[in-house]
């Protein structure tokens, strides 16, 4: 049997393999809401412009709403013979309202229809993802406030570099995620033009009103070139690019969680909620959720790559290749959404071991730069010379097998006579972080200011910085944070 939607010039139906390779209903059925919304807007406009009678329009809209209810309730039977969501919906509409259903497709094509549906879907998804990004940011900001005075090692090359605050480290991810949300919203802005009414590729002879369909669907305006409108997939490419960058950020954070939660680091503990045990090693607590978040970038970037390759050789306008856009995109956007949710859970769940972090922060002569800075500031020694003197001090500590704070004033004077006992003040990790008050620096006071700034942005309500705690958590520290 030839296809009942477009079978006029076909004597027989497709080969079974053809049907299998051609059908998209298996994955594009999730566009049903957007497809029906687009059809309602289109039918309404057709009636307003006199292309369709009000009676037919009303029958179409009522029928479409019934189809919507059927799909939502799960009673709708999707048919692969009907290829995609557009034809499944229209065919069911015909069963319900008869011939009037056949008038719905006046002045449009599946090419502008699918572009419209997919744009609406991506727009909705961006809105959800942005809320999820903001939720994760807020979880991080809240944690950062609690940990504004928690000192951990800051690394470069994963080697001890300078002490930083854990709050500052967490806020680094808040900045990244802020840019991620910005990129998604930026893609949304450019996406928001309606392809509907571009028809197959050349526009239509009917006196349609594309501004009206655009307006009904929440688009800013109709697209200005019909060829571009039906062959453009920039909107999903941009979204996947933004999603890939966001997933890369989540992956870096996940990697840090994996490292931090290892027995060797022991900086944080993840609860049973986001870890698994081992079937053979009873002591194990594996950070599986973090590892999976770390891995998701693979499929998200894969989707971007896949779609860029699909698009790169296509002549204008629509080609069936473009149907390959949806499956990978849905998978990638789902993966990002799940990763954001998992990260938000893990951030709330993660318990830092402040004692362990502090001890580790002091290892590896991490306050050596503070000595050099002191020599510059107090003794007016040029930085390059100060660097050299500090190198000798570190070597001495290494030789004596102690930390920098274990050196006596005689030790310091042995290296350079000009040094006096005030040097001891800068050797602690507390003093080191507290001193870094330059804008954007790691000082606890800065962390609290930045956390308040982000809270204000994310909640839309003004927040003042929380006051600094007088004593460091865990009862140690020498007041260097005051
Ligand atoms: N299922 C198709 C897709 O997702 C819809 C558009 C079909 N257009 C066509 N000319 N065959 O791309």
Q: Can you put this structure into words, describing what you see?
A:
The protein has 482 residues and is mainly α. Helices cover 59% and strands 4% of the residues. It has 18 helices and six strands. It has helices at 16-22, 25-28, 32-48, 54-73, 85-97, 110-146, 166-191, 210-216, 226-231, 234-260, 288-312, 325-349, 354-362, 368-379, 383-400, 409-415, 429-435, 444-459, and strands at residues 151-156, 159-165, 193-194, 221-222, 268-269, 351-352. The strands form three sheets. It has a two-stranded antiparallel ribbon with strand order 1-2. A two-stranded parallel sheet has the order 3-4. A hairpin with a 2-residue loop joins β1 (151-156) and β2. α11 runs antiparallel to α12. The relative contact order is 0.10. The model is unreliable at 472-482 (pLDDT under 50). Bound molecules: arginine (ARG). The site of arginine (ARG) has 10 residues, from α6.
What kind of sheet is the major sheet? 2 strands, antiparallel
Strand order of the largest sheet: 1-2
Strand count = 6
Rg of Cα set: 31 Å
The termini sit apart by 83 Å
Tell me which ligands are bound.
arginine
Output mean pLDDT: 94
Q: Any low-confidence stretches, pLDDT <50, length ≥5?
A: 472-482
Q: Tell the overall outline.
A: elongated
The H/E string reads: HHHHHHEEHEHEHHEHHEHHHHHH
Structural class: mainly alpha
Q: Beta-sheet strand percentage?
A: under 5%
Count up the helices.
18
- Helix percent band: 55-70%
